[in-house]
């Protein structure tokens, strides 16, 4: 009876606590009366609201896009919701609101209410791609906590409010693509202006009607601006010298204005600028000297009125250039051939000038060259190196007159239409009416829109590899944000009349035929809030989404919501009671946790299994590094030690206390991308050890940091050497040995690791070369354990790199070791051609298959073989057998491809044919030296391993 009585008392306690929790929970679930009234008034004229907004309580009923904190509404995210109506002044009553994102609702019209300035807790105001009009109210300057202000792509008129100068915390300021007019506001002692925004990184004011001169006080050395975009306006006067004081600038666009005068001499100071576009103005005077802008990727000074001058000799010193556009700038004389030798140069447009003499394209031309446009000049003769087969336009030159004309060079440029479309790797399916087929032939209703890049640092828009990388990067990011995305496709890639790169983007849902409301608004927020950051080469972007009418109804009734609150309260209180009963044990566990804390600090720091996506990694030999230790060995992660960057973040060179040199891959701050890959790479690399695999020294997971520590590989990636950007030229003998080394590394993963490992991302950028040019396979972030050998495959989401990806894996989601073999076959073709897998719209596998003729010498592949190999005195022994082997690797069906073990044996046979010893990966080869004629192998001199500047060996993007 005593036990029974105790049980009844406990039951009464539970029921009493449940009653209290239900009532407390019911009260807590209710939205603040002021907020509820404001939201109701705000939306009374709105149409097409989410179903969840019809009845119930905003905070307790889980309305789509509403987030609350202690019954106060703090975020409203209704991106791409199809909402129509106007924004009323009742918005001001939401006094705790921090984020307001109504982007991509074109049906939201009218003006912004002046009361918006009362939302003093706002940190993000994102209204891009709506239909708002009228003037931007001065009260916007009262939102002093704003970090993001995006009002672009609306119909706003009138001046830029000077009060914006009060927004001291704003980092992203985008008012582009409106109808704003009048001068650029700057402070004058009594009123604020844009010059006061010392902590702003983005000035986006393009595609407006701004007029007047650019105030010199707009810029100062105290600013940290990255992007300054004032293109497509009506600005007059000169470009102020103060622009040259903003040392942090990376992108500068003042094109398509009415600017005049001479360009400032101190533009040379902007050494971090990647894109400088000043075209279609009326600049005069001498051609500017920009020789100090060593990071310049894209230079466009076209359609100005510079004094006639010969082609500046300093142009060839800009070794980072990819795009040179000097159309109608008055330059004259003979074009120096060394301009075409800039390693990454893709496009040269010098038409409508006074160039004359002989055009010479020597054998050292950039292998990235896609277009040389010299139309309407005075060129009389042309000398082109053997193997050059990119577009050369000479229409309108004396060379094209007469009977002995090379017609291929003398055609005018044609409109090629879309420059890229995502390839389809399957037999296109027939979808039901209204549905669209994805690139992997799944039918659905995609989330679509126009993706615009305002300042890309490349111009070879026909190069599919760029867009394949972008597509894969976006897909990986969206999946990492836990969005239900199956695949992505791009189409209608073109440059518009404003100088922007546009493409149509389609994002397909996973699992269902459509995205629900939550999926749609989440996708919209990724783009509107600039959550996704593309590869740096694409520069700043905007995305304008189409309406999405297919989302399902996910709302619940008020009663359901209320019941949910009750159920949640009961469960919550039950858990609370259990926690109270366990209070006695808590103290004991606290003691144990304290004892473990010290040990944990020396091993795995504060590993957050939920963040990483699994349990603590199982390590075999990898060492834990403290954050302070890595901070010291990189001199506080100084830029001087930055040796590369990738999707994960930056890579730093470090010197440990024992003088060992390491490479440290550091995840970019605040990024969740790569978390699973981080753990995956730790576990895999800590358990595999082979001379042809990059060695993992250890890792750091402390203070919110994710870092991987590798052995330092000084000579960069295989791709860099093949393209000639590393300062190393690989002869045929060395290419054979590098191929053999990489194949042995993969053979170890497939056949000797236990369980076997499938790499999944074999490509020339993931094969590194050490100080003796021995190949090391790197980057195991996407690798999979292949434990079930009986099944013969692993079913997984498709990941990898376009151009290297096994089509069988792409179509079936079933990856096997033969998928790595396919990718390796593509790498072997790169060894022969020194071309990217997809270049200028051409797929290397198809090109070789189409061109090959086994009845002729070198299989009739002279036009595809790397000219460096053809010019070399090293005989190309076994190259035909090498090509045959590569073609076996890229057979469509995996069963027709060799295993890595079989592949290694075949490569060893070719190595022996070439007179090399396959057991020595850095052999001494007796041959006639092209360097010194002394009979030594060209790589017996260690100085030739190093970057041609003579500095410390570099790597770039080698651990991405």
Q: How many angstroms separate the termini?
A: 70 Å
- Helical coverage, percent range: 10-25%
Strand % is 15-25%
Spell out the CATH superfamily of the domain at 718-945. Transferase(Phosphotransferase) domain 1
Number of helices: 17
What average pLDDT do the residues reach? 81
CATH topology of the domain at 718-945: Transferase(Phosphotransferase), domain 1
Shape: globular
Query: How many beta-strand segments?
Result: 48
Structure classification: alpha/beta
List the uncertain runs.
1-29, 553-567, 586-616, 923-960
The first-level CATH class name of the domain at 718-945? Mainly Alpha
Can you name the CATH architecture of the domain at 718-945? Orthogonal Bundle
Biggest sheet strand line-up:
1-2-4-6-8-10-12-14-16-18-20-22-24-26-28
Largest sheet: 15 strands, mixed
Rg over CA atoms = 31 Å
């Amino acid at each position: 009876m005593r036990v029974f009585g105790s049980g009844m008392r406990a039951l009464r306690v539970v029921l009493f606590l449940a009653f209290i929790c239900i009532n407390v929970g019911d009260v807590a679930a209710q939205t603040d009366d002021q907020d509820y009234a404001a939201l109701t008034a705000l939306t009374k004229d709105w149409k097409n609201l989410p179903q969840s907004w019809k009845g119930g309580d905003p905070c307790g009923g889980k309305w789509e896009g509403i987030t609350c904190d202690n019954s106060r509404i703090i975020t409203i995210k209704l991106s791409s919701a199809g909402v129509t109506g106007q924004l009323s002044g009742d918005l001001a009553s939401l006094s705790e609101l921090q984020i307001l994102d109504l982007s991509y609702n074109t049906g939201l019209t009218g003006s912004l209410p002046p009361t918006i300035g009362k939302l003093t807790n706002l940190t993000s105001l994102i209204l891009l791609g709506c239909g708002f009009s009228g003037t931007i109210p001065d009260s916007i300057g009262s939102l002093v906590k704003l970090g993001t202000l995006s009002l672009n792509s609306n119909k706003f008129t009138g001046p830029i409010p000077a009060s914006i100068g009060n927004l001291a915390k704003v980092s992203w300021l985008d008012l582009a693509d409106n109808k704003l007019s009048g001068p650029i506001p700057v402070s004058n002692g009594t009123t604020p202006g844009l010059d006061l925004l010392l902590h702003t990184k983005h000035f986006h004011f393009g595609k407006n009607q701004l007029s007047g001169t650019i105030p010199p006080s707009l810029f100062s050395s105290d600013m940290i601006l990255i992007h300054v975009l004032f293109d497509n306006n009506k600005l007059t006067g000169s470009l102020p010298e103060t622009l040259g004081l903003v040392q942090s600038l990376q992108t500068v666009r003042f094109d398509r204005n009415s600017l005049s005068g001479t360009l400032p001499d101190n533009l040379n100071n902007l050494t971090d600028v990647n894109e400088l576009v000043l075209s279609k103005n009326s600049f005069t005077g001498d051609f500017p000297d920009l020789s100090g802008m060593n990071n310049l990727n894209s230079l466009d000074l076209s359609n100005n009125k510079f004094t006639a001058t010969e082609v500046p000799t300093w142009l060839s010193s800009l070794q980072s250039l990819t795009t040179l556009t000097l159309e109608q700038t008055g330059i004259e004389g003979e074009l120096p051939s060394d301009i075409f030798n800039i390693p990454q140069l893709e496009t040269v447009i010098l038409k409508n000038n006074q160039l004359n003499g002989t055009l010479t394209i020597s054998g050292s031309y950039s292998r990235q060259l896609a277009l040389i446009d010299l139309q309407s000049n005075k060129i009389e003769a042309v000398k082109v190196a053997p193997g050059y087969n990119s577009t050369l336009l000479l229409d309108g030159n004396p060379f094209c007159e007469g009977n002995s004309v090379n017609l291929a060079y003398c055609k005018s440029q044609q409109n090629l239409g879309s420059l890229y479309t995502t390839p389809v790797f399957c037999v296109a399916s027939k979808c039901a009416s209204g549905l669209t087929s994805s690139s992997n032939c799944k039918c659905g209703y995609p989330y679509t829109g126009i993706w615009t890049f305002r300042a890309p640092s490349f111009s070879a828009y026909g190069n599919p590899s760029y867009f394949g990388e972008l597509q894969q990067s976006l897909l990986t990011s969206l999946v990492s944000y836990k969005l239900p995305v199956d695949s992505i496709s791009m189409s209608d890639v073109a440059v518009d009349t404003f100088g922007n790169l546009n493409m149509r983007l389609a994002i397909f849902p996973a699992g269902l035929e459509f995205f629900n409301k939550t999926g749609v608004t989440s996708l919209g927020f990724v783009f509107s809030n600039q959550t996704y950051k593309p590869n740096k080469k694409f520069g700043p972007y905007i995305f304008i989404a189409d309406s999405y009418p297919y989302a399902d109804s996910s709302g619940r009734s008020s009663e359901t919501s209320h019941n949910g609150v009750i159920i949640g309260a009961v469960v919550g209180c039950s858990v609370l009671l259990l926690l109270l009963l366990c209070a006695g044990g808590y103290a004991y566990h606290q003691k144990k946790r304290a004892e473990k804390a010290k040990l944990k600090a020396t091993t795995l720091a504060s590993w957050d299994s939920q963040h990483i996506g699994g349990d603590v990694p199982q390590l075999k030999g990898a060492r834990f590094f403290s954050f302070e230790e890595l901070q010291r060995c990189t001199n506080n992660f100084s830029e001087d030690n930055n040796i590369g960057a990738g999707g994960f973040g930056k890579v730093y060179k470090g010197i440990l206390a024992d003088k060992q040199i390491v490479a440290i891959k550091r995840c970019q701050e605040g990024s969740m991308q790569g978390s699973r890959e981080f753990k995956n790479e730790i576990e895999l690399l800590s358990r595999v050890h082979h001379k042809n695999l990059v060695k993992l020294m250890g890792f750091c997971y402390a203070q919110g940091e994710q870092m991987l520590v590798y052995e330092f590989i000084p000579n960069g990636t295989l791709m860099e050497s093949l393209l000639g950007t590393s300062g190393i030229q690989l002869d045929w003998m060395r290419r054979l040995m590098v191929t053999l080394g990489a194949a042995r590394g993969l053979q170890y993963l497939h056949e000797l690791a236990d369980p076997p490992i499938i790499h999944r991302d074999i490509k020339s950028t993931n094969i590194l070369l050490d100080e003796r040019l021995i190949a090391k396979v790197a980057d195991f972030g996407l690798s999979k354990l292949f434990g079930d050998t009986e099944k013969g495959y692993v079913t997984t989401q498709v990941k990898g790199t376009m151009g290297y990806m096994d089509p069988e894996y792409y179509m079936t989601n079933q990856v096997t070791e033969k998928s790595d073999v396919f990718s390796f076959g593509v790498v072997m073709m790169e060894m022969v051609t020194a071309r990217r897998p997809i270049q200028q719209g051409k797929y290397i596998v198809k090109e070789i298959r189409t061109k090959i003729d086994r009845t002729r010498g070198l299989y009739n592949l002279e036009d595809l073989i790397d000219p460096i190999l053809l010019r070399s005195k090293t005989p190309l022994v076994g190259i035909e057998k090498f090509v045959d082997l590569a073609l076996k690797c890229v057979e469509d069906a995996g069963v027709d491809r060799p295993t890595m073990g079989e592949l290694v044996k075949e490569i060893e046979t070719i190595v022996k044919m070439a007179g090399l010893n396959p057991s020595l990966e850095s052999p001494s080869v007796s041959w006639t030296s092209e360097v010194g004629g002394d009979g030594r192998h060209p790589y017996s001199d260690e100085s030739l391993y190093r970057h041609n500047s003579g500095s410390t060996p570099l790597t770039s993007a080698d651990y991405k």
